Amino acid sequence: MSLRRLTIQKNIAISYDKVHFSKSRRNKFSTSCDSVRQTGDDYPMKVFLDCVLLLSIATALISCSSESQTSWSVTGHLIQIQPDSVEQQSVESTSLHPSAVPDGGTEVYLSTASISITHQVTNEAGEPITVELASGNFEAETVELQGNIDKLTEVEIAVELSSESVVTTTALIGPGSNISFALIDSLDNDLDRLVLYGVSNRAIDPEKKFVISGDLQDIVDGDQLAIIDLTTEIWDEEGEWDFKEFGEVLIRDGRFHFEADIDGPTVVDIYVEFIGDQFTHFGGVAVVEPNSTFKVISLRSSTDLMTTSDSRLHTMLVESWLNNEEYLAKMDRSESLRREFFAEYQAQQVEMQDGDVDVADEESPEDDVAVPGSADSKSSEHRIGVSAAEGCEHVDLTNVRPSAAESFKTPEFRVLEDEAWQIRVDTLEEIALNNEDPWVSLLAVELGAFEYHFGDLEHAFTIYDELKSQLDEEIYTRRLKPRRDMLISYIWAERITEIDNRLVPGQKAPLFTLPDLQNDEIELLDILKSRDLVYIDFWASWCGPCIRTFPKLRTLYTSYKEKGFEIVLVSIDDTVEEWEEASREHDLPWLNVADIGGFEEETPVAYGVRMIPKAYLVDTEGCIVQKDLAPAVLEEVLVQQYGESTQSVESN
User: Fold this and answer.
1) Which residues, 6 or more positions from 193, have their beta carbon under 8 angstroms from its beta carbon?
2) pTM, full prediction
3) Helix, strand, or coil (residue 4)
4) Among 439, 474, 503, which residue terminates a domain?
5) Per-residue pLDDT tens for 193-218?
């Protein structure tokens, strides 16, 4: 046998033992076979056929290798739960109903629900078009979709439950991706959720990637459904608050894993929502930066999540207060009291549903505590330490009805949460005031330093002004200026609160002159001279709770207007047109005036109006006799003043 023929046969034998073939190798064998064809007279036809076979195998193997390197797969799972229930079945044992028909809804056949994966591309005309990568249907409780793609691409996963019900989520798919999603079907179209399952990988740039993973098996057991999501606060060009979402996943076997990109140091909020349990929430925070990695676990018995990292910024700005023993003790005690509080609340709800408790007699968990303004309180004078104004000594302060705000006592678990938050704020402010790195100070502010109600406002604006000169203008404008503006608004609100606190029964009501719908000037002083009691009520066209009081007020006005009672409605709408349209729509029978422009106008400021509805009952001397009365309580006062009205009795 010649050396040339031996070489070709050796090449063939070696090639059959290989699994993958490169293009260069294929070219090499092609050259060898070309040589055989050129000298076909010297070699048997068998060798030529062997070469052809070899090339076919090589081409097929190269093709398979190429497809395996660009392939992706997506697996979908169905989880079905009952509405208003925390009971659900595991993915592996889900027993599917062939259809579900919500009350008043459209029949939904889960077995035929259409699943599709699409992405957006631009055609030659520059127009966006949707391209479908794969589609299918659930078989039993799962669906598997596969395809090939040559680069990372953001896709939309959609499940069409019916022509009127489509739920979607997004994912990042690339060569080698294996993605899982879950359709949480509540048998109520409005509550269906489509989320990634266990893992969310949205990282594109390796230089910007961060990783957050966690093990929450001690708080999320196999019978619970819990979704965890990552967000950060953002502010648009107009200074309006919003948030950016890095992704959300359904926790799988108690664990989760996130990968995403971040441009620079950022505060990321971590939130756990338990499906079907509106009272249980867990949360945490991380100072994320490029190439940082975080681990998340539950923190003792509190609702805080412990986040740890080798990041210097995170260790300084989060772990410093999160590991504080006093902070931990307060949060532990707060969580214990919170569970007791809501267990009592839920028990009361069950009693009501069983018909054992009349709704009108329903008590809250706080009702056994003496509250300001109740029968256990001495009087408004003792309550707030304000003496009756000159000319208002006649006001019976012992007969003052408590307002809704006065009747509410902050639950003890909230008080402990506030005390723990104060520890956090104090720690962050100390860091911000004693660190020369402007990024550290910025992140401390974003985490809560100098926060209204808790923060050191004396130093707040000093820090804001220093950071303005140290940070890039774009960063200051986007991340710090909105917070500074918000702090100014809070300080203004505090001023209004002080006015509200001073303007109590026994004090003089501020006088005003405002236009009515005919643009006639209406003076409060003139009204007071001709009426025994005047109900001054602030409202706006957009205020639903205000408008819901109108039917009852109309009844009271009709019953008592001839006896000396008057209502003066003060609109604080943004425009005259809004006020006029709403007034016509509701056909208001009483005096209707306006101080157009919102809460910052003269009249609402003078009356300490921070929210609406806001009402004062004033006597003919211009003295406040009651404050913040709901219409039902106002009726009690009017009955006491004028006696029972025939129309009022009939309406009841």
Assistant:
1) 167, 183, 184, 186, 227, 275
2) 0.70
3) helix
4) 503
5) 899 999 999 999 999 999 999 999 98
